[in-house]
Amino acid sequence: MSLLSTNFKNFSLTTTTFLHGTTPFPHPTTPSLPSTPTPPSSLPIIRAMRSLQGRVVCATNDKTVAVEVTRLAPHPKYKRRVKKKKKYQAHDPINQFKVGDVVQLEKSKPISKTKAFVAVPLPSRNSNKVEGDVPQELVLSLESQQ
C-alpha cells in the first residue's frame, strides 16, 4: 500500500502532458469580440419588401383593405416564371379605396395581428409629364422657314 501512495504523491495533474497535450495549458484571457466588417458607405442599403404594389380585392372591413400582390417567381423544377399571388391586410385610415383600385403598400410597424402595411394611392404614371408648361423656346416648329 505504501508503494501505491508514493506513486500518487509523485503524480501531478498539472505537470502531465496527457491532459493538455504536449504544450502546457495557457492561462485564460479575456475574450475579445470578433471584429465585424463595416459595410462600404458607397453601396446602397438593401431594404427588402418596404413597398409592394397590388390590387384591392376586399374593402368591407372598417379601415382595412385586403390587397392581392402578384409577383413572378421561377418554378422550382421547370425554371419557368409563374405568377404567385399573396393577400396582405393593409391599413386604410380614411376608407378611401374600393375593390379594384391599384394601391401601393408601405411597410410600417405592426398595426394589429395581421396588418403591417399602410395602403397609399399609387402615384400616376403621367404625373411627371406636364405638357402645358413647356417653354416656347423648346417648341420646334414643324414648318420650314423660308
Q: What do these coordinates show?
A:
The protein is 6% helix and 29% strand. The chain is mainly beta and 146 residues long. Strands 1-2-3-5-4 form a five-stranded mixed beta barrel. It is elongated, with a radius of gyration of 35 Å. The chain starts with a helix and ends in a 25-residue tail after the last strand. The mean pLDDT is 77. One of its GO terms (cellular component) is ribosome. GO terms for molecular function: rRNA binding; structural constituent of ribosome. Keywords: Chloroplast, Plastid, Ribonucleoprotein, Ribosomal protein, RNA-binding, rRNA-binding, Transit peptide. Residues 25-40 have a biased composition (Pro residues).
**What is the helix fraction of residues, given as a range?**
under 10%
Q: In what range is the share of β-strand residues? A: 25-35%
Look at the structure and give the mean pLDDT: 77
Main sheet: strand order: 1-2-3-5-4
At the first level of CATH, the class of one domain is Mainly Beta
Might you state the CATH topology name of one domain? OB fold (Dihydrolipoamide Acetyltransferase, E2P)
Name given to the CATH architecture of one domain: Beta Barrel
Poorly predicted regions: none
Distance between the termini: 131 Å
Under CATH, the homologous superfamily of one domain reads: Nucleic acid-binding proteins
Supply the number of helical segments. Answer: 1
Shape: elongated
Largest sheet, strands/sense/barrel = 5 strands, mixed, barrel
Structural class: mainly beta
Calculate Rg over CA atoms.
35 Å
Strand segment tally: 5
String of helices and strands: HEEEEE
Subcellular location: Plastid, Chloroplast
GO molecular function: rRNA binding; structural constituent of ribosome
Main location: plastid
Protein name: Small ribosomal subunit protein uS17c
